[in-house]
Amino acid sequence: MRRFKSSVEAASETIREVFSRGLIAFDATVQGKPVTVEEYQMKELLGYTFTLTPQAHNDKEEMLNWMRQRLSKPHICKEYGEEWFQSMINAEPTKEFEAHMRYYPEYWSKFSGVGWSYSYAGRLNPNLKEGLSLLKTNPYRRGVLLQIYYPSDLHQLQFNRRIPCSVEYHPLIRRGVHGDVLFLIYHSRSMDLVNWFSLDLYRAMRLQEYIAEQLSVGVADLVTYVDSLHAYKVDVPDQLKW
């Protein structure tokens, strides 16, 4: 597993890995909507994982800027990532939806359909409050999983409804040299490299910082595991097309 001290380096290496080692694949639906193979053929890596050290938090904003320029995607910016994160921890789904439509309307107008089937704000916040309470009583427990993907989402697939790409965040507190530190394991079942990888990573780092602050502990490694990391042909800049 690669361990990066820079989130910019992690993003750069991940792009290289997907386009150099990724296999060509196709899924006939994206966000529950039928798509064509001409546009949505993808380069895909399965079971992709890496670790960010605490130092990688220092250039997370630079990582967003680098990805925005490298992939020509204006929506990749700190403002979008921060509004999404704040709506998550404050249980404000309306603000989450508003941010989606403000920063990337062409995407969400296409894939949100007639309504929003879920929100990260609605899924994370109740678990987050209870999880923080449990970690305050026993910091070293392993059972606090902050679930985004619910068992009922499996049933939603029968109706081609949107389901969360993120599965869970798993906070783990351990003793470090200078006191307790928070590790965070982030599991995603599906991650769009071009559109969402950098924003997902930014939110995970911000969540780790938030939990550590609430529990008065330091920040340790962020371990990211992605079942399907992919780039759709329609989104890829010309210099990266296959």
CATH topology: Thymidylate Synthase, Chain A
Kindly provide the name of the CATH class: Alpha Beta
Number of domains: 1
- Terminal-residue CA separation: 27 Å
Shape: globular
Low-confidence stretches: none
H and E string = EHEEEHEHHHHHEHEEHE
CATH homologous superfamily caption: Thymidylate synthase/dCMP hydroxymethylase domain
CATH architecture: 2-Layer Sandwich
Whole-angstrom Rg: 18 Å
- Tell me the helix content: 40-55%
Strand content: 25-35%
Which structural class is indicated by helix and strand composition? Answer: alpha+beta
Topology:
Blueprint: E1 2-4, H1 7-21, E2 23-25, E3 29-30, E4 33-34, H2 37-40, E5 42-52, H3 60-71, H4 78-89, H5 93-103, H6 105-111, H7 120-137, E6 146-147, H8 153-156, E7 166-176, E8 179-192, H9 197-215, E9 218-232
Parallel strand pairs: 1-5, 8-9
Antiparallel strand pairs: 2-5, 3-4, 5-9, 6-7, 7-8
Helix pairs in contact: 1-3, 3-9, 4-5, 4-7, 4-9, 5-6
